[in-house]
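[agent] plan:
  1. take the single chain provided in the ticket
  2. run structure prediction with default settings
  3. attach structure tokens to the ticket
  4. add a short note for the reviewer (M.T.)
[agent] executing step 1
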Amino acid sequence: MMKDQLRDFIDRITEANHVSDDDVKMLQGEILDTGITSRLEVESLLALDRVVDAAESWGPVLTKLVVDFVVWNRAPHGVVSNDDAFWLATLLEISGPSPNAMSIAYAILDEAGYVDVALLDFIMRGRQQARLSQMAA
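[agent] step 2 finished; step 3 output follows
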């Protein structure tokens, strides 16, 4: 289930094709002031991240929201299970490992006490792709 305010926010941002600093403040301070509450909300925000331009403040806030949900709001706390790691790695992989996707994966790795190998595999593929892109340039 997704909050109506978040759905309206995503619709408005998609139409504008840009996330401003004010939008980020509204998302963090009003719409998701208690954090993300469902996988659907994570999926929707990550889909939004792939299609719009965003202010610099967007990436860190998106990362914090996703990390808090995956690491601290899911049981057991501080552990990223195989199911959650596979689900998140699949989401982050869509359209290739973007800078925000890699930031989320690294932040989860830093914060969680245990992370399943599925997320580690995503990080390794992202690093390999970055290396190959540098070699091609």
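[agent] step 4 note for reviewer: The mean pLDDT is 94.
[agent] ticket updated
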